[in-house]
Structure prediction request, 173 residues.
Amino acid sequence: VIDAAKLLTFAPQAWEGYVTAFTNGGPDLEAAGINTPLRVSHFLSQIAHESMGLQVTREDTGWSGATMKRLWPARFPLGSADPRILAARGDDETLANLAYGKDGYKYRGGGLIQLTGRANYREAGEALGIDLETYPELIEDPAIALKAATWFWTRHDLNRFADHDYLRAIGNA
Prediction:
């Protein structure tokens, strides 16, 4: 179990909801095999990276054209000069749909692991017994966010990389 004081030492600006989820979520971590110092360190590092220090519940999709070009160079080689990006300037939902496809905004990154994409929401929801496909906003609930993060961790067998201290492999899952 990760107690609140330790979590706040690691992520001092952590959202209170996430702190509570962790202090109550020991069984989720244990079930996912996140039970050694190295595994816990890698898990916390990855979710802290994804959630901006355990502060963010949903992805900010207000990207610039340059950011979209950097993230998806094959799809947006013109960057800020791309007419689709120009037309969508200031419209986060349209930008997310451009980047991720139909319903991209609805299934944008969410929760501690920033679960992204309809298929991931569906699969996580089925595994957790929660209808995340119909109600993707449920990923913003801290307890569900932690369960989804441990599901993702287990689904991609990230403990095997944590055990060998392969940080880059974890981030590319």
